[in-house]
Amino acid sequence: MTDELTPTTQPSQVSPSAPLNRPIVIAANRLPVMRDDNTESGWTASPGGLVRALLPMLRSSGGTWVGWTGEPDDNAEPFSVDGVDLHPVPISAEEVLLYYEGVSNDGLWPLYHDALRESTYDSLQWNAYRNVNERFASTLADIAPANAIVWIHDYHLQLVPAILRRLRPDLTIGFFLHIPFPPYELFSRLPWRNEIIEGLLGCDLVGFQRPMGAANFAACAQQLLEVEEHNGVIKLPTHHASVGVFPISIDFAEVEEMAAGRATRKLTSQIRARLGDPEVILLGVDRLDYTKGIGLRLRAFDALLESGEIDPERCVMVQVATPTREAVEHYQDERREIEQLVGEINGRFSRIGLPVIHYLYQTLSYDELIALYRAGDVMLVTPFRDGMNLVAKEYAAAHIDGDGVLVLSEFAGAADELTDAVLVNPHDDRALQRAIVTAVEMHRHERRQRMSGLRQQVQRMDVQGWADRFLANLVAPNSRS
Ligand code: ADQ
After folding, report:
1. Residue 343 domain-assigned?
2. Does pTM surpass 0.70?
3. Atom of ligand 1 at shortest range from CA of 248
4. What is the pLDDT at residue 35?
5. Ligand 1 pocket, mutate which of 287, 288, 362 (most atoms under 8 A from CB)
6. Residue 74 belongs to what domain range?
7. Is the minimum distance from the CB of 383 to ligand 1 under 6 angstroms?
8. Which of 87, 109, 394, 422 gets the most CB atoms within 10 Å of its CB?
9. What is the CA(286)–ligand 1 centre distance, in A?
10. φ/ψ (deg, to 5) at 70
């Protein structure tokens, strides 16, 4: 069945068109802002490439972003930040538990990531998910101007497209899934599998990070709803739903500019000095999520210290783990396991004043992060499964010195594009250890050659290009009925 999917298995090719001249409304679980008492509105734009790519577009199209403020029971009125209109959708404290922590982060997240942890399926939670999706859809139906483009983001809002199409058939509706879409064998476990596929098929265009996600979705739609897919288009009685591949990226120019700044250079040398000026700094930067394979890389480092293949007097590891989803039990377990591992390894291989692993359970500022990337000689990105992984791309963009080695899991979406990384199957412990040694020992000439390839790729396919390509495909005639 997936053989018919060849046309959707490459990143979509419709080139970015002229400005769309149509209002755009974005919907995502979270609004792109954080509370900030130092500003007049009390809000400031959140950092991150996605926000930076989409906000200017909203500003120029007079569009709006619809989402939750992040605070339970917040009935905030619509407001503006930096010339962009923001429309809050209220979510109650109970819905945070059921829709957000429950279905989204304890049900869909593990299932969509290879079922790495047991998912919770609970009909009470599902009712809350449906209610919140209905609320988003009716808010969008109320505020979207006639013939607007609505672009919905991620796994929290998979029912919104179909509900919205029923309410407002004049709209052009797109959806982008930031995480993987699982194969039928896993997806079919979901008690609400048909409802989700029906929800997504309400779109004119459904976008995925990798060809496999697009193929899995089309296969699930064919199996579960008996629809026909040809050349990436599913013909439905009401409209045509297209399926495409749009690998997300970062704002390359911005990261490069930050990396080149004097303050960053100073911070980078301070970091190296504080780490004891080691020959090699190995770096990991992730949300503390069980999908990211933090434990795998710590165990690989441990084995290499034990065997003597890595010398603790030459190499140190820095692992930054951002606190995330702390109310969900799987995340509490993961944190305990990682912190125990760090303690055990440091206990055996550190010297007074010189730990072999520097572990931070913190959210850093973007400037600090870029300085850290610059300081890192070897970046370890070893997820079991990841939609894309922007850290891998940020690391390459930050290395304006043209040096540095990226060790990258084949199971991150970024592996499709970043073929100059040292690609590895992180489930294979010996292969992961070998990849780390290869990176540490790599000759300067090869490091520079590979880094140049990585940087060219990320520069060529940046986040603005991603957004332009998605929108150009969304309004292209072949994606509409
Ligand atoms: P995430 O799972 O959050 O995103 P990722 O793509 O790596 O994963 O993005 C993380 C972002 O958080 C990066 O931009 C990074 O700079 C930032 N970050 C990480 N640690 C930080 C820290 N300690 N302090 C401050 N910032 C930190 C989901 C999917 C990914 C997909 C993205 C975008 O799971 O696969 O790449 O969406 O589609």
Report:
1. yes
2. yes
3. 38
4. 83
5. 287
6. 11-249+464-480
7. no
8. 394
9. 7
10. 100, -5
CA distance 86 to 66: 6
5 within some domain: no
Dist CA 32 CA 46 (whole Å)? 5
Q: Please tell me if the CB atom of residue 58 comes closer than 6 angstroms to any atom of ligand 1.
A: no
Q: What amino acid is encoded at 5 in this protein?
A: L
Catalytic residues: 178, 386
How far apart CA 162 and CA 172 sit, in angstroms, is: 12
Candidates 318, 389, 393: which one to mutate for ligand 1, based on the most atoms within 8 Å of Cβ?
389
Beta strands (DSSP E) in 32-75 are 33-35, 43-45, 64-68
Q: Are 250 and 463 in contact (CB under 8 A)?
A: yes
Parallel/antiparallel/unpaired status of strands 240-245 and 280-287 = unpaired
Residue entry with tokens 């439905």: 236
pLDDT of residue 42: 85
Q: For ligand 1, is residue 425 a contact (CB within 6 Å)?
A: no
Residue with tokens 């749009």: 246
Token pair, residue 90, equals 């209220």
Indicate if 355 and 475 belong to the same structural domain. Answer: no
Pair of tokens at residue 175: 């959806």
Q: How far apart are CA 249 and CA 187, in angstroms?
A: 26
Is the CB of 323 within 6 Å of ligand 1? no
d(CA 106, CA 334): 14
Q: Please tell me the distance between residue 143's alpha carbon and the centre of ligand 1 in angstroms.
A: 30
Q: Which residue has the tokens 């993961």?
A: 334
CA of 1 relative to ligand 1 center, distance in Å: 33
Considering the domain architecture, whether residues 476 and 377 belong to the same structural domain is answered as no
398 in Cβ contact with 374 (< 8 Å): yes
Candidate of 286, 322, 390 to mutate for ligand 1, largest count of ligand atoms within 8 Å of Cβ: 390
pLDDT in tens, 438-467: 999 999 999 999 999 999 999 999 999 999
For residue 35, what are its two tokens?
């509370």
Using the mean position of ligand 1's atoms as its centre, give its distance from the Cα of residue 211 in Å: 21
Domain count, the chain: 2
What is the 180 CA–ligand 1 centroid distance (Å)?
Answer: 14
Q: Which residue positions in the chain have pLDDT lower than 50?
A: 1-9, 17-18, 479-481
Residue 323 confidence (pLDDT): 92
> Do 374 and 402 fall into the same domain?
yes
Residue 56 located in a structural domain: yes
Is residue 3 domain-resident? Answer: no
Q: Are 191 and 123 in contact (CB under 8 A)?
A: yes
d(CA 462, CA 455): 11
User: Rounded mean pLDDT of the chain?
Assistant: 93
In this structure, the answer to whether residues 356 and 376 fall within a common structural domain is yes
Ligand 1 lined by 463 (C-beta under 6 Å): no
